Recover the amino acids of this structure.
């Protein structure tokens, strides 16, 4: 009974549902959703005709943690929230592609659950538009399985991806490997593969040929951390692999395929001044760099979401700056050649520890972003126009 009361307090409605009665009105909002007894984050968001679906997680008293979903209306106000999986121990979700649509009009979500982080397993949940669980599978593997991501595949079924690493207690006893699990429409395993060692996948996407592109960071003893891109065919077999970066510690990258067939990438590179800068590039269809750019700003400048192709061919991405000034999130626009064209700052109002995890297009030509402020137990969702403009600091909306 205490848990039920706690969850009711955590997920009580923030404000009444609002509807857009003027179809010609462009809706902006910038909202924080609060939970007094937990740390709460948003990690993925998907637009609906009457609002948005969010995936997040929270940590509460006595090690109680959960992955949850929340539906909000067109103005960012909560309609309902529901738990997908909870435990006394560890749950997590990390990325924008932890949530996807299904072919039959429902949703698929992936998270991680375990007694502690280094024994976590992937948990895949299919749920309805009303938040009712249709089925749920936990894929138990004797390892630490993390960076969970899921794709609703064009040829049917789902692809689960992340990394897997063996542990003996708190000690790693093997290198991290990419793990891929292909399932059918009911979540039953069709095939499973372990790929290159020492690769941490930050973003997985299905390509135009029904294969997959995986991007992230890799560690090796000669050059430290490097960006990588790995192309697979539909069966998960490697077609090509490329590293990007310098001889110094760089970082990870996120690669998406352009409608014209090539790829664009945003990542982190070591600059000549010893700082970490934003790295952008276009890649040909075998991963070779065609055009590249570096941008420095304060001590570190990096992507905060996967790149997204805009209707005019430009590329949108959330970026984050660290440094002597507080962290700053920006809605950034790049040209098709990945030149930085425009940035618009976005804030929770705390002006520190703001993070974005997902960026999605909306039917009205705008964009919605989901994340959190780490310094406070607050999740964050913001609706912007095509240039990243919104209504102001939270709480605000078009009304």
């Amino acid at each position: 009974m205490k848990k039920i009361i706690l969850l009711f307090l955590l997920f009580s409605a923030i404000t009444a549902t609002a509807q857009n009665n003027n179809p010609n009105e462009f809706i902006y909002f910038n909202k924080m959703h609060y939970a007094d007894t937990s740390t709460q984050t948003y990690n993925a968001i998907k637009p609906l005709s009457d609002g948005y679906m969010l995936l997040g997680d929270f940590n509460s008293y006595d090690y109680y943690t959960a992955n949850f979903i929340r539906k909000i209306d067109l103005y960012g106000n909560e309609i309902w929230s529901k738990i997908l999986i909870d435990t006394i121990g560890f749950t997590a979700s990390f990325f924008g592609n932890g949530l996807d649509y299904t072919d039959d009009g429902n949703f698929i979500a992936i998270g991680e659950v375990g007694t502690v982080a280094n024994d976590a397993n992937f948990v895949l949940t299919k749920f309805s538009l009303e938040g009712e669980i249709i089925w749920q599978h936990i894929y138990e593997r004797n390892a630490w399985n993390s960076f969970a991501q899921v794709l609703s595949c064009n040829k049917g079924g789902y692809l689960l991806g992340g990394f897997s690493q063996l542990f003996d207690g708190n000690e790693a006893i093997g290198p991290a490997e990419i793990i891929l699990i292909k399932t059918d429409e009911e979540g039953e395993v069709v095939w499973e593969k372990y790929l290159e060692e020492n690769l941490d996948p930050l973003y997985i996407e299905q390509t135009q040929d029904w294969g997959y592109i995986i991007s992230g960071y890799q560690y090796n003893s000669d050059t430290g951390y490097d960006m990588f891109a790995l192309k697979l065919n539909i069966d998960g077999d490697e077609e090509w692999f490329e590293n990007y970066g310098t001889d110094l510690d760089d970082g990870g990258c996120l690669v998406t395929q352009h409608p014209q067939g090539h790829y664009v990438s945003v990542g982190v590179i070591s600059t000549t001044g010893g700082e970490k800068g934003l790295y952008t590039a276009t890649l040909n269809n075998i991963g070779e760099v065609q055009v590249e750019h570096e941008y420095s700003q304060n001590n570190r400048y990096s992507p905060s979401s996967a790149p997204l192709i805009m209707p005019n061919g430009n590329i949108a991405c959330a970026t984050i700056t660290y440094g002597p000034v507080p962290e700053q999130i920006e809605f950034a626009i790049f040209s098709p050649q990945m030149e930085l064209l425009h940035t618009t700052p976005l804030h929770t109002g705390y002006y520190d520890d703001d993070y974005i995890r997902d960026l999605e297009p909306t039917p009205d030509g705008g964009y919605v972003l989901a994340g959190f402020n780490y310094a406070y137990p607050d999740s964050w969702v913001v609706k912007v126009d095509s240039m990243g403009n919104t209504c102001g600091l939270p709480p605000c909306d078009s009304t």
Observations:
- Residues 90 and 114 are 5 Å apart (CA to CA).
- The first strand starts at residue 29 and ends at 34.
- Residues 1-20 have pLDDT under 50 and may be disordered.
- The helical segments are 2-10.
